[in-house]
Amino acid sequence: MTSRHGHALFPNLDENFGVISAEAVIFYTVPVGENVEVRCSTSQETTRKFFCREECRQEDIIIQTSGVSAQEDRFSIEWKRRQKTRSGDVSVKISQLTKSDSGRYRCGLGSSLSPASYTDIEIIVVDGKHPAWCFVSVQVLIG
Asked: What per-residue confidence (pLDDT) applies to 35?
């Protein structure tokens, strides 16, 4: 699999204090026809895991599970336990990407409406093969 990913930070500004919050977005750039694996959030095994498009309304949910894993068409979701802990990572795989797969997604656990429960992801499907690249986000806290 050839994919590129990175992070970007989109701040919300307050006219008196500057940055008051920030939204991190993970970007994945993947060639048409390839597969991608997105890792996001941490959870305990019993927590609901989900992957959805855009705003994550009920009709936007692509795949979800309260178990360890689930598969639906080209999408699979799996919870992977970390060694010697009760926490783990949520992994979502999408196979045979098409241009129509480009867009904003959310991956997370628990309630899909709480910002603390999900990670915003942008998938960009491109023609041809590209080398991997990455850029890192910076979080700014104003006290």
From this structure: 92
The distance in angstroms from the start CA to the end CA of the chain is 42
pTM reported for the whole predicted model: 0.73
Higher pLDDT, 44 or 74: 74
| Residues in CB range of 128: below 8 A, 6 or more apart | 31
Q: Extract the runs of DSSP E, i.e. beta strands, from the chain.
A: 4-14, 18-31, 36-44, 49-53, 61-65, 69-72, 75-81, 87-94, 103-109, 118-126
CA quadruple 42, 68, 132, 32: dihedral, nearest 10: -130
| Domain spans in the chain, listed from the N-terminal domain onward | 4-126
**CA 34 – CA 107 distance, rounded (Å):** 20
CATH 3.30.470.20 fits 4-126, yes or no: no
The token duo for 122 is 């942008």
**In what side-by-side order are the strands of the sheet with 36-44?**
36-44, 87-94, 75-81, 69-72
